[in-house]
Amino acid sequence: MMQHGMFAAPGAAGVTCPWCKHHWPAGMVAVECGNCGGALPAPPGPTRAAAPPPGPRRLPERYTRELLFSKNVGAIVGTIFASLGAVFAAIGLGLCFVLLPLGLSFFAFGALFGGIGWGLRSGSRKSALRQIDALTRGLVAEGQLVGVRPDHSEIINGRSPYRIEYVFYVNGQALGGSTKGWDIVNALRQPGEPLWVVFLPEDPGVSSIWPPIA
Ligand SMILES: [Zn+2]
Fold first, then answer.
1. What's the 30 CA to ligand 1 centre distance in angstroms?
2. How much is the pTM?
3. Cα 164 to averaged position of ligand 1 atoms, centre (Å)
4. What is the average pLDDT across 144-170?
5. Are residues 96 and 160 in the same domain?
6. Which of 18, 22, 49, 84 could disulfide-pair with 42, CB 3.0 to 4.6 Å?
7. Does 35 reside within a domain?
8. 123 with 149, same domain?
9. How far apart are CA 47 and CA 97, in angstroms?
10. In a domain, 60, yes or no
11. How many domains, the chain?
12. What's the 35 CA to ligand 1 centre distance in angstroms?
């Protein structure tokens, strides 16, 4: 009973390792990635992945680097703005010796532009650090997938990620969170799927799915 494309039966879906991005086709999905040893997300369906190990959990460096910089759009754009701002401010300082008003304008523009860039960079890095913190030492809760939809607010190479919303319970109180993944297999996930959530005990609003999805 094999259907094709996006509507393949859930059991037929492979899964991509969130840590090293190795794709495991259906039938080869294990609890741990055979390539990097990281925990693999469960394929779409009613099975929960393996429970998170107790903290502190070690995250692959490549993964934290991606969260902090190489796949962090805010941090990248912010760094570019901050660098351009610094260049303008430096030119402005030089121009002050030639034509003071022009130099000051350049400097002010550079400082403002650079400041905005730096703020964006710090903010984006801070939220990535909180995410890493939750993954590393967060407490464990049982959660459930609430919904999956394409997130068109982000487009890279003509593709958008999937935004996955989930709910979990802390002391009987329902809390929500969301995460994104680029793996096409996420389109097959259904509301109600069980998953694990890790959250910061002092701020349960900061949470992540465990293991994260690719
Ligand atoms: Zn892996």
1. 11
2. 0.81
3. 21
4. 92
5. no
6. 49
7. yes
8. no
9. 69
10. no
11. 2
12. 5
Which H helix or E strand runs over 94?
A: helix 73-95
User: Domain range holding 79?
Assistant: 66-132
Determine, yes or no, domain membership for 152: yes
For the chain, percent of residues with pLDDT exceeding 90: 68
Give yes or no for residue 10 having a pLDDT over 60. no
Q: Which of 132, 166, 182 is the last residue of a domain?
A: 132
pLDDT greater at residue 30 or residue 178: 178
Q: How far is the CA of 21 from the centre of ligand 1 (A)?
A: 6
Within 10 angstroms of residue 171's Cβ, the number of other Cβ atoms is: 7
CA angle 25, 27, 33 (to 5 degrees): 65
Token code pair at residue 137: 């030492």
Considering the domain architecture, whether residues 91 and 152 belong to the same structural domain is answered as: no
User: Same domain, yes or no, for 50 and 155?
Assistant: yes
- Angle 100-137/73-95 helices, nearest 10 degrees? 160
Residue 165, class by beta-carbon neighbours within 10 Å (0-12 exposed, 13-18 middle, 19+ buried)? middle
Residues 39 and 143 reside in one and the same domain: yes
Count of CB atoms within 10 A of residue 38's CB? Answer: 18
CA of 159 to the centre of ligand 1 (A): 22
Distance 18 CA to ligand 1 centre (A): 7
Using an 8 Å Cβ cutoff, are 27 and 13 in contact?
Answer: no
Give the per-residue pLDDT at 196: 96
- 61 lies in a domain? no
Alpha-carbon gap, residue 147 to 207, rounded angstroms: 17
Whether residue 202 sits in one domain with residue 171: yes
